Amino acid sequence: MKIKTLLAQAALSGALLFAAAGPALAQTYSKDQLQQTFMSYLSQEGYNPNVTQAGNVRFRREGKFYIIYVDEKDPEYFRLVLSFSAEDKSAQARLKRLEGANLATTETKVVKAYIDSDGDPNFACEMFLIVPGDFKTHLSRLLRAIDTAYDKYNRKIAEMR
């Protein structure tokens, strides 16, 4: 009876060890592979993407520029950002943008709206994927979420004028 118990425990321990090692065995992707994954789909969707000097993928949609950050060290991490440069860099305008960003973040699922170090607004969606290509199933909803956050941000800014 003891031998059966020991064998069962050894088998269970081995299975748990193998399962825990799973993330370490995940497929690796080069920066080029990730860029091509994103660019191929975006091209199919008619967005005409390009690779930035930093190696990220940029595309235009409805007059706004979006960036998908490419990180070969963490290929399952997906980050989509809409940002733009604000004209008024005064402290008062920055405070209004901060209030608009706070409202957009609070009232919109998934999107983080924030003001960067230059005082410009950013709207970001971040998620972990099983494989990088899975972004395709989420992209349209993420874009709609960013649209919602952007609209809430702009309404709040207009309300404070």
**Largest sheet geometry:** 6 strands, antiparallel
Average predicted local confidence, pLDDT: 89
The structural class is: alpha+beta
Q: Helicity range of the residues? A: 40-55%
Rounded radius of gyration (Å): 22 Å
Low-confidence stretches: 15-25
Task: Explain what you see.
- Strands 1-2-3-4-6-5 form a 6-stranded antiparallel sheet.
- The longest helix has 25 residues, at 135-159.
- It is an alpha+beta fold and 161 residues long.
- It starts with a helix and ends with a helix.
- The relative contact order is 0.13.
- Helix 3 (91-107) packs across helix 4 (135-159).
- The protein has helices spanning 2-21, 31-44, 91-107, 135-159, and strands at residues 50-51, 57-61, 64-69, 77-83, 111-115, 121-128.
- It has 4 helices and 6 strands; from the N terminus they run H-H-E-E-E-E-H-E-E-H.
SSE order and pairing:
Elements: H1 2-21, H2 31-44, E1 50-51, E2 57-61, E3 64-69, E4 77-83, H3 91-107, E5 111-115, E6 121-128, H4 135-159
Antiparallel strand pairs: 1-2, 2-3, 3-4, 4-6, 5-6
Helix pairs in contact: 3-4
Defining key terms:
47% helix; 6 strands; 161 residues; 6-stranded antiparallel beta sheet; alpha+beta
